[in-house]
């Protein structure tokens, strides 16, 4: 990773942890414009319910289909029911299948790891282009490594799962989460 990229990633990290969410998009775009070769652009997809959603909800086509259902953990951090833990359980159950980099195609999933922890996921769009939701902040199309530092330094790749299997798994594993039917407008672009 180039020094410039490391600096960009650290500064992106500062924005998403120190700035108000409503300022993320403009601050991120201002920052990216100062780094040669950086590619970050907002994607304006309006949620029908205008709800908060995370990167895992986005790639699993659950936006507007489940409520974000946030709960508080013992360490006073807030988590979504649909998060990296659920993603891991989908993999363990065989609903998600891992692929190699040379098998990557548009709409496949790119998962960022910080050590063994899944920290972020996006949808592969084209060479060096990912679409992902940054926490509760904006949805961006960005370069593969034009992401906050906390997202990690290791990547793994997965085929998008069959939606019916994801929905059935959620209904069984998280009975308190209601999954609305998939409407045509919810499908990935």
Written account of the structure:
There is one protein chain. The protein has 5 helices and 9 strands; from the N terminus they run H-H-E-H-E-E-H-E-E-E-E-E-E-H. The chain has 189 residues and is an alpha+beta fold. The chain has one domain (40-183): endopeptidase fold (from Nostoc punctiforme), CATH 3.90.1720. A hairpin with a 5-residue loop joins strand 2 (70-72) and strand 3 (78-80). The radius of gyration is 16 Å and the shape is globular. The model has no long low-confidence stretch (mean pLDDT 88).
- The rounded Rg comes to 16 Å
CATH architecture identity: Alpha-Beta Complex
The overall pLDDT average reads 88
What portion of residues belong to β-strands? 15-25%
CATH class: Alpha Beta
**How many distinct domains?**
1
Residue windows where pLDDT falls under 50 for at least 5 positions: none
Distance between the terminal alpha carbons, to the nearest Å? Answer: 30 Å
Helix-strand pattern: HHEHEEHEEEEEEH
Principal-axis shape: globular
CATH topology: endopeptidase fold (from Nostoc punctiforme)
Count of helix runs: 5
Could you estimate the helical fraction of the residues in percent?
25-40%
By DSSP, the count of extended strands is 9
Query: What's the arrangement of strands in the largest beta sheet?
Result: 1-8-7-6-5-9-4
